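Incident review: delayed structure delivery

Summary: a single-chain prediction request sat in the queue longer than the usual turnaround. Root cause was a stuck worker, restarted by the on-call engineer. No data loss occurred. The affected request and its eventual output are reproduced below so the record is complete for anyone auditing the incident later.

Affected input:
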Amino acid sequence: MSNLPGYHLAVMGATGAVGQQILKTLENRDFPIKKLTLLSSARSAGTEIEFKGQKITVQEAVPEAFEGVDIALFSAGGSISEKFAPEAVKRGAIVVDNTSAFRMDPEVPLVVPEVNEEAILKHNGIIANPNCSTIQMVAALEPIRQEYGLKKVIVSTYQAVSGAGAAAINEMKDQATAILNEQEFSPEILPVGGADKHYQIAFNVIPQIDQFAANGYTLEEMKMINETKKIMEMPELKVAATCVRLPVETGHSESVYIELDRNDVKVTDIQQILSVAPGLTVQDEPENQLYPMPAMAAGKEDVFIGRIRKDLDEDTGFHMWIVSDNLIKGAALNTIQIAESLIKLKVVTEK
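Output delivered after worker restart:
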């Protein structure tokens, strides 16, 4: 791989679920790589991972591992990013971080390339990848905002258990099996955060993702609120969120209500704008029962939008349903698109 033109890429957290999806997406998109360094904790170091037909040994993450790296993709948890991202930057790498560690840092761009690609130019070595549920929502709303303005967003999310990691997926499946076999079980994982109390997720819905803040919103909800305002550069935008965990393995769904700056917009206008926007697919034929669902979106790169309808009381209001694979566009793909934008905008060049 070292004789190929391209970039020296490092993937931090290569053995995790998002890290694995990053590698798969890099391969699918044929990202220009001349050298690939895979990093993880000491526990996972020594693992061999196949990439484009070659076996690469995962190394333990240490500061020196970033020597000569052009772009480092981080997906190993916030504390790891806080420790190692500055070390990577110190050695000349540009970090694209998939954790919440730097998202609200005013010195760090928070980027969805379809929405605010140019923000990349303001980086100081680190670029943050937004929360998965924020990414799919702003990707869908930005074309509408550009055309008709935007003054209010109210979102309720229906989030897959994969957002809480592989252990949560296994717990959901184990609980479902136990329930179907009329066996006892003891929830141990969900919800994550806050009091040491856990609930059944199989055949259930948990209205909590992450810890509760003093204002009654969860940290996940506050991420969506604050990140949306930052990405769209609209601190005055009215945003409210309710985030819910569902017994779905992959794919986040969102019911989104928006109010525009204009009152002469039709459903067909919004459908047309979204149908030609990059990275979006409109599935909106209620007469044929065609609308997005996580089972259909899993494994796909696009954000899917349907159930677009005008509010019955507010003449500037619209409702829509937004679905996307949270591990692909919600994490790995957006991270790689940021890296592609670094090349496109000539922020990073081959050494």
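Verification: The two ends are 15 Å apart (CA to CA).
Action items: add queue-age alerting; document worker restart procedure.
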